[in-house]
Sequence to fold (300 residues):
Amino acid sequence: MAATRTSTTISLPLASRLTTAVFSLMLGVFIIYGVGLSHSETLHDTAHDTRHSYGFPCH
Amino acid sequence: MLVKYLLATIVAGLFAGILLTPAMYVRNVPLILHAEEYENAGGPEHSHDAAGATSEAAPAAVAPHEHEKEVSPALPFGRFGNTLLINLVAGAGFALITGAAALFLGRRITLQNGIYWGLAGFFIFNLAPAFSLSPELPAMPAADLATRQAWWLITVLLTAGGVYLIVLRDEIWAKVLGIALIVAPHVYGAPEADDLTSSVPPTLASEFAVSTLATNLFFWVVLGTALGWAIQHYAQSELDA
Fold:
């Protein structure tokens, strides 16, 4: 039974997690910057309703 | 590279982004459209207000409004299509950041604890910044955009650090420092417009603030739970290796 319980920690050493973590974080930050903070007019107008709805500072 | 883990987080983000779209259309988008009527048609009636506001506000805060009257350079998928596209992309972005945080911390997001990851994300990205910098409707008075963005970003980073110290560290000093980090940007204060005169009725603004927070809470609960489910189903083998 104990085997079916999922642990809440990852036993994988940090070295094996680090590349994915850094890549994932950089991609995520790049995306959120584009969606929420970029001053590009095309991005602003396309993301307009989402920016307001999400509470990003807008206009 | 843990490819399955990355794909699982992106799938969960896209799913939450899809569900966010109809949720936004229940209240938030109708309120935005209502506010834009005051932004565009408020000219003749409120010309004295508008003139007063524009002359005192920073130039950077005035210019972006003009696109509403010109040809918009937005992507050509229509208002709904653009919003859906951006919500999908944003969902994936927030999912990637949350998945990365869990990897850095050596924690596993599961179906059972996913909701707590979601609540943490909601607190960090929505509730904490909104406490001092309310979600804004179009045509509401606001301080310089870059200053508000900087405050928003710093608040998100400090709050994330604070949540980590309070939730995942046992030491007393960590809890105290965590609370201090979360409170600090609000003691400092968010940038405010000099002139708070607005053509948007205050009722609309308060309805919008509450409805956006409710919508975003829904988004984050879905995202956290979906992350837990997707990672357990698609990436478990990678994490156990």
Summary: Residues 14-54 of chain A form one domain. Chain A touches chain B through 45 residues (CB under 8 Å).
